[in-house]
Design goal:
Structural class: alpha/beta
Number of helices: 16
Strand order of the largest sheet: 6-7-8-11-10-9
Number of strands: 11
Helix content: 40-55%
Order of helices and strands: EHEHHEHHHHEHEHHHHHHEEEHEEEH
Largest sheet: 6 strands, antiparallel
Strand content: 5-15%
CATH topology of the largest domain: Rossmann fold
Number of domains: 3
Bound molecules: tryptophan
Distance between the termini: 47 Å
CATH class of the largest domain: Alpha Beta
CATH architecture of the largest domain: 3-Layer(aba) Sandwich
Mean pLDDT: 92
Radius of gyration: 28 Å
Length: 448
């Protein structure tokens, strides 16, 4: 079985070395595993919550997209898209908003921190708090649940959000799943082995501390940043302690075991910090040089990036569009046309609750399913060019006309006017298939 791995990258900044070692590199490695089905996306709706500078939003989306591609993400294997290209996400956000407890969201760390700060300053508790900030976890739950992700690699600060996605998904399953798991309940994954890089001053590398090393700056920018790494004041010739050196920690994150051992020995033997910085520069320049070139080439062709991301969105919507159709069904947003007329209720129990579910494919065509009383699929129609033709066919099926059912494999096909218009799923065996045919006949028998 494949494991679906999904993660989002908020598009508010320019990727730095810490992002690369802590998130980008491990995610790309994970996406290459044989059993991995990776969904990586630019969380640009989330970015709007934190940033109201359109230039910065746009620049960051472009830079982050180029970074992931330059670092080797294979978009044929992984699904790589912008959140804002998937209209199903905000729609699902609303469905989830309607089941998410306000009390649950009151407990979200980011919202609480804002409120606490306001209270401390004697302000109105909700001063400056937008509904975007408050609902941030619901949007994130939609990101995750939309694609039924099993694993969500995130930083520690995001664990609570993944747990909220579980809570909200579970509640939705309970309310609307009729015993079925509509949503897979996701798990947060914290990559323990992954390096958390120290920044230039030894605190965690982070934009908010202004202590980052740019990932794809010029060689000069890289050199200048490395020159600013804080070291102790030991002179060349004096033994250095690698285990108490940020410079060594940074080196370690990118070096082979042999390189690490050699560098360690040199430091202990008194290598000067200036030379040590030169070594780190060479290592990083080698690790990132090719990717840097690819990055700049991509940044210069934004139209190509646009195409890649739109293709990614189309791939993602192949999953999202039909699934959202099911969810709309589940909550009761159903087509009137597809409604099976209720019988008089006395003996046609199955007919009473079997139903047609129509939905739109991503290419704009229309299809329907016929579900039995228990919600199991009996038929999936072919694609129709418009909703009207789909509706006419489903209406004819309910008109009492004799059904032309033809067995095929462990299932059956339904023919109308010398054309196969719908097929059943494959059933476990012939008995299950016959039972399904029986349920289908009952469901479509005209009410008396
Ligand atoms: N909130 C995440 C962060 O700031 C980004 C994100 C948005 C995300 N949607 C997601 C991460 C879904 C994982 C899954 O890091």
């Amino acid at each position: 079985m494949t494991t679906r791995i999904l993660t989002g990258i908020t598009t508010t900044g320019t990727p730095h070395l810490g992002n690369y070692a802590g998130a980008i590199r491990p995610a790309i490695v994970a996406s290459r595993a044989a059993d991995a089905d990776s969904f990586y996306f630019l969380a640009d709706y989330h970015a709007l919550i934190k940033c109201d500078d359109p230039q910065r939003i746009q620049r960051s989306r472009l830079e982050i997209a180029a970074t992931w591609l330059a670092c080797g993400l294979d978009v044929d294997r992984a699904t790589f898209y912008r959140q804002s290209d998937i209209p199903e996400i905000p729609e699902l956000t609303w469905l989830l908003t309607c089941v998410a407890g306000k009390g649950l969201l009151n407990r979200a760390h980011a919202y609480k921190a804002s409120v606490d700060k306001n209270v401390e300053l004697g302000e109105d508790p909700d001063a400056g708090v937008t509904m975007g900030l408050f609902s941030y976890p619901v949007l994130m739950a939609a990101d995750i649940l939309m694609f039924n992700a099993h694993k969500v690699p995130v930083g520690r600060d995001q664990i609570q959000h993944v747990e909220m996605a579980r809570d909200i998904g579970q509640r939705f399953n309970h309310l609307f799943g009729q015993g079925k798991e509509l949503f897979t309940l996701p798990e947060a994954v914290i990559e323990e082995g992954v390096a958390t890089l120290p920044g230039l001053d030894g605190r965690k590398m982070s934009k908010s501390y202004d202590n980052t090393i740019p990932l794809f700056g010029s060689a000069k920018q890289l050199k200048d940043a490395i020159a600013r790494i804080v070291t102790d004041s030991k002179l060349p010739g004096e033994a250095k302690d690698p285990d108490n050196s940020y410079l060594f920690t940074l080196y370690q994150a990118f070096a082979s075991a042999a390189q690490q051992a050699e560098f360690r020995a040199e430091l202990v033997a008194g290598l000067g910090w200036g030379d040590a910085k030169q070594r780190l520069f060479q290592l990083l320049d080698r690790e990132l040089g090719e990717a840097r070139e690819r990055y700049h080439a991509l940044i210069e062709k934004p139209a190509e990036l646009e195409d890649i991301l739109l293709a990614g969105a189309a791939k993602a919507r192949k999953v999202a569009t039909p699934f959202l159709g099911e969810l709309r069904e589940a909550v009761g947003l159903r087509s009137f046309r597809a409604q099976v007329q209720a019988g008089d209720g006395s003996k046609k129990k199955a007919a009473k609750s079997a139903r047609f579910v129509s939905f739109r494919e991503e290419d704009g065509s229309f299809r329907f399913r016929l579900l039995d009383a228990a919600g199991e699929q009996l038929l999936l129609s072919k694609c129709f060019a418009d909703g009207k033709s789909a509706g006419q066919v489903s209406k004819r099926l309910q008109s009492g006309e004799a059904l032309d059912l033809r067995e095929q494999g462990e299932g059956f096909a339904l023919w109308l006017d010398a054309e196969c218009i719908a097929e059943s799923p494959a059933f476990a065996d012939a008995t299950a298939c016959q039972a399904a045919i029986q349920r289908l006949r009952e469901a479509l028998a005209p009410a008396e």
